Amino acid sequence: xxxxxxxxxxxxxxxxxxxxxxxxxxxxxxxxxxxxxxxxxxxxxxxxxxxxxxxxxxxxxxxxxxxxxxxxxxxxxxxxxxxxxxxxxxxxxxxxxxxxxxxxxxxxxxxxxxxxxxxxxxxxxxxxxxxxxxxxxxxxxxxxxxxxxxxxxxxxxxxxxxxxxxxxxxxxxxxxxxxxxxxxxxxxxxxxxxxxxxxxxxxxxxxxxxxxxxxxxxxxxxxxxxxxxxxxxxxxxxxxxxxxxxxxxxxxxxxxxxxxxxxxxxxxxxxxxxxxxxxxxxxxxxxxxxxxxxxxxxxxxxxxxxxxxxxxxxxxxxxxxxxxxxxxxxxxxxxxxxxxxxxxxxxxxxxxxx
Length: 354
Known about the structure:
With 354 residues, the protein is an alpha/beta fold. It is built from twelve helices and twelve strands.
């Protein structure tokens, strides 16, 4: 089995190692624009040696933002700064990925350091949208249930965002269908109580995601990988479960998805997580084995030996490091040193590493 610093090839993209910076919201944009914070934040992790740098969730339309400070890619004007970031990521040897997202009923909130509560329209917020008019929290205002026409327009928005991602030079696109955001809301029976072709049966609940994937894949070059992040389980009875995830992954693979980024939860408040080191790797392992698709493991992966063991035992094809990358932008270089792997270091830093 591969190890942490073995390259991975998908389509025509060569990942120099199996370490990815997981998408992590920075809540630091204005009107969706990337800025110098995003440049420094992302590029420093490339200098730090990660093979893949993923942006935070980039909203496909303004009302798809979790907060008004979210990154966006709903207008052409967003491309210029993102292209500058991508160019710098490439200069430092990293693959550049972007996560396309819509927050659904979890939109229009304040940043977490301001409490994460709902924003009213008078405070700069908006009415969230969802598959059904069911709020995320019982005390929250009900979101607007989407019409069939609304769904078709959102599919077009995902496609337009993907085209802008191509224009910015990204090497990889990930579609966010996890953590209780819009696409996941359609998948889970806990949030989807529709009675039309987008609700009810498993086939109907996954229809929106499959249509988005198919539409995006159709406009991407054949040589460009397409990933999907899912919540493998909802951590609550009668919700989305691992068996449905396996069935979904078989379908996504047939639609041209190259890797499943395996997370979990987020659909309702108060889920009872079984949390511990690498607590979600069992999901990436099972989906990889049973759906015969490449997977990424994410969640409380903090130590180099732990990440390496996930790969060597075949539980995933990539590891996505989140909060540990916030603590240490040079995690990948520290991992190489601990695992005694010879990797190149920027000449400016060489005297500190050898």
